[in-house]
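Hi again,

Forgot to attach this to my earlier email, sorry! This is the prediction with thiamine diphosphate bound. I've pasted everything inline since the attachment limit keeps bouncing my files.
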Amino acid sequence: MNTQTVSASAARAYKSDVKPVWCPGCGDFTVLSAITKAFAELGLPPEQVAVVSGIGCSSRIPAYLNTYGFHGVHGRATALATGLKLARPDLTVVVASGDGDGFSIGGNHFLHACRRNVDLTYIVMDNRVYGMTKGQPSPTTEPDWDNALTPGGTGLRAFNPLVIALASGANFIARGFSGDPVGTARLIVEAIETPGFSFVEVLSPCVTFRPDQRDWRNAVRPAPVQPTGDIGAAARRLMTDDGFNLGVLYVGSRTPYQTHRTAAPVSPSEIEQQFAV
Amino acid sequence: MTENPGIASVADLLAHAHAMESEAHERYLDLAEQLELHRNVEVATLFRKLAQIEQLHVRKILDRVGALELPHLSPWEYRWLDDEAPEAASIGEAHYMMTPHHALSLALRAEQRALDFYSSVLEGGGNSSVQELARELAVEEREHVELVKTWLAKYPEPGADWAEDPDPPVYQE
Ligand SMILES: Cc1ncc(C[n+]2csc(CCOP(=O)(O)OP(=O)(O)O)c2C)c(N)n1
Ligand code: SF4
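Structure tokens for the complex follow:
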């Protein structure tokens, strides 16, 4: 057979031998599969890709890929990835987080990563809960989500990551759903291909602590409008967004931040010397 | 099924069939691994068996492909009737305590979607060699549907309390 078809086995070649410990039914499985499909479609050599994450169930993704990976510090994935991309602009750097990692403890880094516009693709698996630590509400949790830890709900207005990304300067903004692995793979391909900071929120159900999210399948829909490069138009669209519109919202044309470093790279031992006491 | 996926050539149909069977194989392997990790050995073994069956189907499709050159298709260029390759069991429906009845029901829905896909190619009309191949593939898928149905009949639906875990995942402060 002579085919270049992006087969399941081409995508599977990006998976490592480490088996995911996620709960069966967790949306993160399909996000992993969408990432591998996107890499296969782009034909990226695994040694030219680095996947950097924070902490959480979703942040375990680097271990499950055979690219370079860094399972970092809680909330600091974008900061780590920014450093890596500036030092190694030749690599494709993808960042993976959850809504707790990315918007709670990592909220400040999120704003500044959008503002800096380094050429990164940031995938946040949003399940509106802290899965790994067993079910606490996150910044994207609905104010009335009633559970054992927050009886009656937090009463707090939910954080809208797309609004923040747009206001802070992200150059590509999209939303996918883990139940649509092909659509999500396409968003990830477009995000990687678009220069600058690309943000992809993927609604990814936590079937254990948010079993209600199994119904997201019936709530999501393709956004009724085409992507725009006009920030004002994108902002107006977000005014009527209920969090379940899927697709690309905004594609800008900002020039990505680069250091344009010309000096010879400094070796790790030279850096160590500067900190020697 | 009235939608016509618009398959124009034998190579196009075989590209779809190959992707469909490969995805089904990979998906059952993924599910088997998930259930093994959660010590649900009975269901994991069943998913492994289903994966083996799908692997045989992949080989059969490859035999049909022979020296034919298949078109390059990006994941989103396949004309599936739904969100993804129809024969891939829906991963979001898995549960760590699922029973063989649930696993085989999942497989039955996947096989039925595959049959629907070929039926829609048939109903779409057009090229006679595409029609002939679609008919053959539909006959095979119908056999798979029947096979899974017979298998499923051995596992009656469990009681409503099947997911009751004496040591459930608990919210933790
Ligand atoms: C500095 C620090 N604070 C708190 C924690 C505990 N912790 C681990 S994961 C997590 C939240 C993860 O939630 P999210 O990012 O939404 O990921 P999910 O598990 O839902 O995929 C927290 C608070 C930690 N590991 N490190
Ligand atoms: S706890 Fe939730 S987020 Fe974590 S693996 Fe299980 S289903 Fe997924």
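Chain B touches chain A at residues 15, 18-19, 22-23, 25-26, 30-31, 33-35, 37-38, 62, 65-76, 78, 80, 83-84, 91-96, 98, 169-173 (CB under 8 Å). Residues A 55-58, 74, 97-101, 105, 125, 127, 129-133, 138, 206 surround thiamine diphosphate (ligand 1) (CB under 6 Å).

That should be everything now.

G.
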